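HECT-type E3 ubiquitin transferase structure dump, as promised
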Amino acid sequence: MFSFEGDFKGKRNINLGGRNVKVDKAELLRKAQLERQQRERERLKLQSAYKIQAFWRGRACVKKLRADARAEWDRQIEQCFGQLAAGTQHSIGKTTLSLVRQFWFFYSPLKDHQRLEVSLCRLLLCTSSLGVPILMSPYLEGLIPGWKLALAKILAICLESIAVNHGLSMANPEDVSNVIKVLRVALDPDTYTLLQRQSDAADWSGIYRGQTMSILSTLYESIRGFFLSHHLEHKRLPSITTLVHISTFPMQILQNNDPSMLRIFVSQLLTVPVLPNRIGIDALAHFSQRLPLKNIIAFMAEDADVYSLVEQQRIKQDTDPFAALLGNILAFAQPKLSKFEAELMGAYASVLQQLIQRLPAHYLNAITRDGDNRTASTAIASDDDEDDEMELSQTVPRIDPHLRKWLSSLLKPSHLEPIVRSLPAQNATLTPTASTQTQRVGSFLLALMTSWSHQKSDIGTILLFRIDTGLLQRLWTISRQSRLWETLATFRSLENAMTDPSFSGEWSMLVLFCELFVRLLTTLGDDELFGNKTPFSVQNLVELSEVMKNITFDLFWNERPESHGGIAGTMISLSHLTDVFTRLLQQIHARDSRRGFCPKDHWLMLNTPFDHSTFTDLVLQETSDSGSSITAKNSKARPCRAILGNIPFVIPFETRVSIFRAWVLLDREENGLDENWHAPVARVTIRRQYVFEDGFTHLNALGPSLKSRIAITFVSEQGLVEAGIDGGGVFKEFLTTLSRQAFDMNYGLFQATSEQLLYPSPHSYAAQDMQLHHLEFLGRIVGKALYEGVLVDVAFANFFLAKWLGQRSYLDDLPSLDPGLYQGLMFLKQYEGDVERDLGLTFSIDDAEFGEAKTINLIPNGANIPVTKENRIQYIYLMANYKLNTQIQRQCQAFFSGLIDLIDPQWLKMFNQQELQILLGGTSTPVNVADLKQNTTYAGGFAATHPTMVMLWDLLEHEFDNEQISELVKFVTSCKRPPLLGFKELRPGFCIRMAGEEVDRLPTASTCVNLLKMPAYTDKASMRR
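structure tokens r here:
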């Protein structure tokens, strides 16, 4: 490439090929560029070679220098040991400083650990002529500045080496290594006390503080690493015991409220998983005694930076650091809780709450999963448990059994009771300090219930029944005195209250109160709730429901985005807030529906941003498929549906019935069922004496097609086909006749309560496959009646109707099913004696059917688990659940599966149980004669002005009582109750036809078409007769 022959010009390239070669310009430039790049690479290779050679020569030189230094150091230290043995060493401090400086020059962990352990540390531990360890001699010889640096360096080297050989001596495995001994001497405050006695020329306490703080972070990080590198069975190692003592030395002289020290101590040492289990019993007692737990708790309650440091540990260990820290705090705090004053207990609750908030999602639920220790009350899981289990298996690893034990103590009554008892007394003045204390405790308890959803029922039981502190009443009293309650009660801006962090503690108290009150209501009968056996008056319930109604309506009506953070400064999400308020409202409304303690129109939203016709239009509005932008009006369609599905009682019943009818009409239009040319989907012949059997045989297989028109032909008991064309009236007669037969208890499918309300039979016969098919068919028949607006004279029990709404039934429904069992459970609940010894109950039921006795366990192995004072609430809950839900579960599911073939479940959720019964069988209000008169048509010669009709209406309005009028309505329509929205809704309409002028004849009726056939009576006596 380069010429060194003296020619400064390049040789010309002469082409002897006989032809001229043209070189493209672009190709020429490309070649030039490649040549430049090649020259550059050659130059870089040459430079790299220079650097590598220089580095290698430097390292070789350093290696030789260090080898020479090691040899010289070995010679000097042997000489030093000889002089010490001979007693001729006088300036040991200077010699030590020189040796330490030489040592850190050549020190390599792999090559020089033996020199560190056997030579240097052994030398430093020897006693000098001054009576102190040689480690401290340079200080007494006036070498303080130089020795501070040298000692810090050598301590850092020792900390790096503590894990070698498990921290044990190479010469004696029963003893700790000299490395750890040097750390113990250098960090022991007693060493500096000894220096103080030798000389008062220096501030030895200040030197100790400075020396310790300079290595504090490295100290605890190294001890942490040592613990994590050893298994729990190594806890009796002498090195671990010594390191535990070393870890407490800084606390003896440093300020226990020093933020820097506490942050390092908490983030490094207290995040070691299951720390108490890694320490021998004697060392643990020493550590617990020296641990400044109160200072740590008070500090962690106020300092946010410590949690940021703990967060950094997540990438360094398998166990979540917040879970490890929570377990350690619980382990060391529980023996001392009884000595915590109220303010410190509030700080403790705040620390627990902040740690729980930072745990991974579902972490506490994994404790229940891994331990497989669900209790009786947990056996009735929430609706979300299955989803939680799926997420658990995907997100949370198995939890160490020892950590699980410490975390499980969160739920122990012995742990929760002192926390709850630290709250101010119910009649105490609520000072700012007491308010803060209450909010902290409330926030912790709510965080515990929210994060540990699998144990929410247990937590509620403990707080309400195991700890006799009046917690619920205290929360209610304090919540009513809060700024938040004033804001909500006056219906100011809910959004401002949700986003203002200053309300966070008050929100936590209110939501905790609602969670516990919902739990309490599931275990209270109506007689308890209204019989002065609870601290809540009717006025309290009215006030509470009024505020909750307004808030919940706002939460549904003013949709917030999914990204909404919920309540600022808490774990309360928007969905959680909406859910708990909705459940509480539903519970109170259910009680009011039975006992009627709220004022008229209490549940209605009277000051709404819409009228009821607008609301109906929004609900019925269909989503556009054109992809056009959503207007402000139709953006409210979804909130309206949410209101109907969750708190429908804020909308008048008549409006909801209209919406139900409109939904049915839309469904009919979508399926083309109202077109005149639409042929019947089936033509069925029904024998009068076998209406149920024939109906099941011919119609059950239709499924959802039962919505269509069905043509019925009756065959009389004599085997004759009854004349007539089914235009809808005959099918109505079929429905009413089938209902009377099928719901007869002789069929064995249904039983009746003491109030003659029907529910599926709990006997095993009703759970057989054929009977379940019969129940499914009956569900379709009831659905057909609802779909067609045909009233049937059947009354169902409330707890059975609740299943139509997807709801569970609770203790308050039990009196309607089994009053005797309910009274027995109430006796058990209030029993003051020894429940286990005196009553001898177990978590099982002894049942007898067809002369055969059997035992049914309410929980696994329930027959061997006694009912005690502590678990009797779970027993009451499970017994009511078995009777009201579990025992008839298959029968209810079969009935409901048939019902929803025709009726959308969301349509039903607009109503409660009492309203469903009205929807099915009509209102129990007196018959409105004026409404009946207005909606009656006439035929066969009758008219509104006909003398017989004038006389009939006068008789009904002025002489017949309501019972007589109802019997007349039943005679004509087969149902004594009037339609929900008046007789204008009756299909076919109420009609009176003249049946001749023979006044000695009795009137007749065709219930299939709601037709009254009446002779033209001329006097009231004949008409009345």
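The first helix runs from residue 25 to 86.
lmk if u need the other ones
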